[in-house]
Every structure is written in structure tokens, then in C-alpha cells.
Amino acid sequence: MTTTNGPAGPTVLVAEDDPEIRKALERILNYEKYTPLTVNDGAAALEAVAEHEPDAVILDVMMPFVDGLSVCRKLRADGNRVPILMLTARHETSDKVEGLDAGADDYLAKPFEMEELLARLRALIRRSNDNDTAEVFETGSLKLDLPRRLVTVDAKPVDVTRTEFAILELLMNNIDIVLERAVMYDRIWGYDFDGDSRSLDVHVGYLRRKLEATGLPRLIETVRGVGFVLRPYNGNDNGNGAQPVEGS
């Protein structure tokens, strides 16, 4: 593993087996005042996360010994919620879904622009830092606890990824307000909305299924051509979806 002695900014672990990409990322991260750590395989990435507790991880999918998807699954299974940006040379939607399903927070296909990677990295770290505020959001039996980074339904934990948590936080902080896709992309990922991107829809789909598996009705509604909205809920579903909460 390579540790660069630069400015004491947020620590970013780069796990990438291509030496040219790895060195280029190390240089740009140093320039942007991050503290980069670099490894060239998945096994070393797991060791580095345990030892250094980085603020974010840039993780290549195709690596020797342990691939990036397996690294991501292992970290999430262990309860580690470090922000993860996946890199891959594959462009198929199914590959993107596989990365998000493994627990990655964002996904970037090669070749990529450094400016876009930095924008996504800033968004991931900002979201992680913003979640330190002492706030709790509730609607009916659904509760989101920011300082504990915990989602519960009827006081039972719901296992969500960092991105799913951020989406739910944004929706619950704007309950009953329709949020445009462009606004959600900017607030969650920190970059301009790409009309061809399906990342937001994929994450919302996963979040919906996890919440509805607890017995909740569909609280997150799709507003076609606009975006998404979370409707308030008082726990008395009559089969027509979420019900208004008095005073909400």
C-alpha cells in the first residue's frame, strides 16, 4: 500500500490494479488536498479500510485476489458504511445495478473525467459529514435517526445503504413535497442530472422494497416526468397507500 504524505485532508482509499489510473488518481487527490492511500488489489483494500478507516473509498470492480464487488459486499456485511465509489470498464445497466446492489453509493464507468469523479467524491464525503447533525425524522412508525445513522420501522432496524439513507433523509426532510430528479441528483451526488442516468431510480427501487418488506405501504411515490415524493403516514392504511398525518 502507498500512503502519500500530503495535506491532512479527508482520507481516500484508492483500490485500483491499473498502475496508470492509480497514479493519476493519487496525483489529483493530492492536488485537491485529500490524503490518498493506494492499493492494487481487493485483499489489500479490506486490510487498509480496517487499519486506516478512510473517509471514502474509490473501488475498481476488476481486481486480483478479491474483486471490487466482493470487497463492497464484505464491508457492508460487516456494518461498515464508508462511502464507496465503484469504477468499472463495463457500461451495461445490469453491471451498474450489480454494483449498487453490492452496497456501493455511486458508480462511474471508465473512461471517466477527473472533474466528474471529484464532484461525486465531494458529494459522498459531504453527505457523510452532514449526517452528523443531531436530528430525527419520523412519519408514523417510520423513523430516521441521523446521528445514529439508523432507519427503523416499529423500532426494528431496516438495513439500508448510505445512498438509500441519504435519499430517505432528503425525502423525509421534504415530506409531501415533490422533489425533481435534478434536485435530488444535485443534493445526493453533487453533479448535474443526466437524463439517461438510472442510478436514482435503482436506489429508490431498492429502498421501496426494503421499507415495504416491513409491512409499510408505498410511501415513496413516483411523479412521472418530475421526480419523487414521500407521503406522510399515520399507520392506518386502508389499502389506498399512505394516509396524512395530523399536523404534518
CATH secondary-structure class of the largest domain: Alpha Beta
Counted beta strands: 13
The CATH architecture classification of the largest domain is 3-Layer(aba) Sandwich
Q: What is the CATH topology assignment of the largest domain? A: Rossmann fold
Q: Mean of the pLDDT scores?
A: 83
Assess the beta-strand content as a share of residues: 15-25%
Portion of residues within helices? 25-40%
Task: Explain the layout of strands and helices.
Layout: E1 2-3, E2 11-15, H1 19-31, E3 35-39, H2 42-52, E4 56-60, H3 68-77, E5 84-88, H4 93-101, E6 106-109, H5 114-130, E7 136-139, E8 142-145, E9 150-153, E10 156-157, H6 162-173, E11 179-180, H7 181-188, H8 199-212, E12 220-223, E13 227-230
Parallel strand pairs: 2-3, 2-4, 4-5, 5-6
Antiparallel strand pairs: 1-3, 7-8, 8-9, 9-10, 11-13, 12-13
Features:
six-stranded mixed beta sheet; disordered C terminus; Rossmann fold; 248 residues; four-stranded antiparallel beta sheet; 2 domains; alpha/beta
Task: Summarize this entry quickly.
By secondary structure, this protein is an alpha/beta fold.
Could you characterize what this model shows?
The chain is α/β, with parallel strands linked by helices and about 250 residues long. It folds into two domains: about 1-130, Response regulator (Rossmann fold, 3-Layer(aba) Sandwich); about 135-230, Arc Repressor Mutant, subunit A (Orthogonal Bundle). It has helices spanning about 20-30, 40-50, 70-75, 95-100, 115-130, 160-175, 180-190, 200-210, and strands at about 1-5, 10-15, 35-40, 55-60, 85-90, 105-110, 135-140, 140-145, 150-155, 155, 180, 220-225, 225-230. β2 (about 10-15), α1 and β3 form a beta-alpha-beta unit. α6 packs across α8 (about 200-210). About 35% of the residues are buried. Residues about 235-248 have low confidence and may be disordered.
